[in-house]
Amino acid sequence: MGRSRLTPEREAELYKGVLDLLREVGYDALTMDAVAARTRSSKATLYRQWKGKPELVARALRHCKPVAADGVDTGTLRGDFAELVRRVDDDHMAERADLLRGLGMAIHGNPDLHQALREVLLDPEVSGLAAILRRGVDRGEIAADCPALQFIPHMLVGAFVARQLIEDRCVDAAFLSAYVDAVVLPALGV
Fold it and tell me: How many CA atoms lie within 13 A of 107 on its CB side?
């Protein structure tokens, strides 16, 4: 579906409205009617731009994403991870964690939401991370047969989930920096 008919400013306004509603009512109660009313648009406009609620929510989250692995290439693996951590906005991260926690429950009963979040949010990040790791292998910083390579996305996602469960605190830049230095880089043999 083409989004060319919306200006970037209007698209950002729509995404903000979607995320505000998501915070207020949760995924299950969020409707396209409510989004249309909140953003002063028509349902027809929304459906022209997005396939439905799952894609709209996933794209709203992607648009407001505070950290992205794509485009990170400092020349060293340690530098790339440091750059990823540098891009973390602690306040935005806490806000986003609340949204994703709420969506965690909705995913179980909604395969379309799960697929949209995977395609729009997760897959691009895993691809960006894979590129960072591949460059580390190409530079000789990581052994090509390092068994931890395949588990790095799991480790990083796990850090987000585990910190909230264990410490009842959101991940922030300081935690990520310490985690990368103490867990991720040693697992890669760096």
Answer: 12
